[in-house]
Specification:
With about 210 residues, the protein is α+β, with helices and mostly antiparallel strands. The chain has helices at about 5-15, 55-65, 80, 90-95, 105-115, 120-145, 145-155, 160-175, 185-205; strands spanning about 20-30, 35-40, 40-50, 50-55. It starts with a helix and ends with a helix.
């Protein structure tokens, strides 16, 4: 997929090559015939039925009139579905699978929608798989990383809080040497109790 700099360079090249050319596309919906126009020298402005419209709004309009996309299903939009019909570049003409999809899920969910297959099951399966992978990664890290294991199992103080604790110790030692009770003694005590309680809860979760 081209980046923003490439698209900007291409837009400038079009403007230099064919300035003030107007390209129009007619779209027939179930009720009306619509016309979309764009000027090569003013590409930021798009006209829909002679009325100026922003590109995001145009994409939303096209999405509503071209596809029936269910809510709450990631990977589905007008911009992601239209390449299935409008192929860009030689590779997309020689290989029907090359339509700009970033992953197997993207390809599957978009093709399934266009074929009339229930995409909710695909999206749900993908979500469950991602959750399983995340849990497996956490489990692996918990077993292999001593720093994470000590932090969550209530063992020794980990490096995550080491600098914070060292600073607190230094402050308390200074107060002790000066025979001054720390002003935030009770706050520190409550924080320590809370951390200990949280660590014990996490330990129980991982052990059982």
């Amino acid at each position: 997929m081209p980046g923003k700099l490439q698209l900007a360079a291409a837009a400038r090249q079009v403007d230099r090559s064919i300035p003030n050319w107007i390209f129009s596309l007619e779209i027939e919906t179930s009720t009306n015939l619509h016309k979309i126009s764009r000027n090569t020298s003013n590409q930021a402005v798009v006209l829909l039925d002679e009325q100026e419209i922003k590109l995001p709004s145009l994409n939303q309009w096209l999405e509503q009139h071209c596809f029936f996309i269910p809510r709450g299903v990631p990977g589905l939009s007008f911009r992601s579905l239209v390449p299935k019909f409008i192929r860009r570049g030689l590779k997309q003409y020689t290989d029907p699978r090359e339509t700009g999809d970033y992953s197997e899920y993207d390809s599957l969910i978009r093709n399934a929608l266009l074929l009339g297959i229930d995409v909710h099951l695909i999206a749900l399966k993908s979500k469950i798989r991602d959750e399983i992978n995340a849990l497996q990664t956490l489990r692996k890290n918990f077993k292999t990383d001593p720093l994470i294991r000590e932090f969550y199992s209530g063992g020794k103080d980990s490096d995550i809080h080491l600098s914070h604790l060292e600073r607190k110790i230094s402050e308390l030692e200074k107060n002790r040497d000066e025979f001054i009770v720390a002003e935030d003694y009770y706050d520190i005590q409550q924080e320590a109790d809370s951390l200990s309680e949280s660590a014990e809860k996490i330990k129980i979760i991982f052990l059982y």
